[in-house]
User: Fold this.
Amino acid sequence: MSDTSQPADTNEEGEPSSDLNRVVGKQVKLLRERAGLTQRELGDQLGYSEDLVSSLERGRRTPQRDFLETADDLLKAGGLLKATAEDVERAKAKSRVRHPAWFRDYARLEREAVEISFYNNHDVPGLLQTERRARALYEMRTPLLGEDTIDQRVASRLDRQDILTRWPPPMVTAVVEEVVLQRPIGGREVHKEQLERLITLARLRNVELQVMPTDRMEHAGMGGAFVLLTPKGKSQVAYTEAQNSSRLVTDSEEVRILAARYGSIRAQALTPRESLALMEDSLGER
Assistant:
């Protein structure tokens, strides 16, 4: 379910904090180049991916306070980046994503989640996608989306990924089909970045990724993709989508059935360790 971070064909745009993001991104780029560092080198020293640094510099993603503070020290910015942190957070708070009323409830529950479980049969879950993967998916949408809409939706999707690295992070499990590791959405280079991203995430303590082999003779997930989400102190809910239809499931019996199905899917898939090895083989790391 590559669009798990939004309902199908609904708005994912936020209020423009993008102007501030672009200004801060230009500052980061200028300081990085002055320091003689590549995006990859800066990312390595800060503990971030090259893809994330690139997204920040282009204003596609909202920089977090810890990034700004650490980058300020590393790049000898003299407090310039640190001074923007509060403004960035204030702008982000004002630019909450616009969703239909029912999906706003889901988005709020997702931000509060202590556990999120994905089964995806076509692509990588939205919360695990790279910027270029997400952009490629939006660009192939039909009816076609405008460039501004694509920019806004990509930025919104990347902002939602902050829940993966906050503290304490939610426990995240995901099962994807083996074909996802083979299908080069966006081109070979974009696909390579996505595999690298999955491998990085799979090594996190709060993330377990599993692959469903194509040659399985039994498969509990033939009914399609879905998400299970457990907010702190609240009952588990589910989310499903197909074509132009999306649905937040709160009925306890329906959620129970999907949760049981997810347990079967995980049992039929490769273990997390086996799945990581397969991803590394697909990337050529082993």
Remarks:
- The chain has a mean pLDDT of 87.
- Residues 216 and 268 are 8 Å apart (CA to CA).
